[in-house]
Protein-lysine N-methyltransferase EFM6
Amino acid sequence: MDEKRESRSRSSSPEFSPLAFGEDLAPLPEYKAAGTTALDFSGLLDEPLKLHEDLKSGCGGMLWPAGMVLAKHMLRYHQEKLQTARVLELGAGGGIVGLTIAKGCKIIDHPLYITDMVDMESLMQHNIALNQVDDRVKARILNWGEPLSQEILDYKPDTILAADCVYFEPAFPLLLQTLQDLLALNPSATVFFCFKKRRRADMQFLKSARKAFKVTEIEDEDRPIFTREGLFLYAFTKK
Ligand SMILES: C[S@@+](CC[C@H](N)C(=O)[O-])C[C@H]1O[C@@H](n2cnc3c(N)ncnc32)[C@H](O)[C@@H]1O
């Protein structure tokens, strides 16, 4: 790893504590007890997705609002195209978006990757098993800002998902770097990016993204509802 990246990635792991909100960290949703939720996204899934939530490994251990919006969007508008896509989810937490796709789209050509930091690995594995999609979904560690693994380089994802990954300011440049690396690896890839604005600084991320990528607001019939809740949904592509 080059020196610049190594030093930046050291600040990449926000500690989750529902009581301790640092300056850099947007206020997190209320602490939630561990449990399993079933989701069918208003009937879009024939068989509900089961998602175990457990905050003991970090804030990705619960469902976040942008994950719900992005999962539903992908199911509603991209179901057919996703069957043959090479999908990679960043900051997947329990795997909400990737697992929804695995449940709702008949993935035929490629496995689908859900990725996060090492602390989330067991929850991702647990949710893969819970939904019996072990044959189609792989959980991998992908730390933003670090060089992509050979496995991901070979996979060359064309559909990148990121939901609620804008909440910890020191991680913004790391996430941006990973998105840049992925779009350099596959210049025709699309990043589906959904986040909830919690602090003014969150819009700084978008400002940097606009400099680095072509940023397009995506059509969605739920837009009026999620916009009212401070949620944004974009596609990033290479300039
Ligand atoms: C707010 S959670 C969102 C989880 C899920 N995408 C959702 O919408 O429910 C943000 C996720 O980003 C992951 N994350 C934060 N910093 C990261 C980093 N530097 N590298 C990789 N993942 C990171 C966290 O572990 C967490 O799972």
Summary: Residues 6-13, 15-23 have pLDDT under 50 and may be disordered. The radius of gyration is 16 Å. Residues 210 and 236 are 9 Å apart (CA to CA).
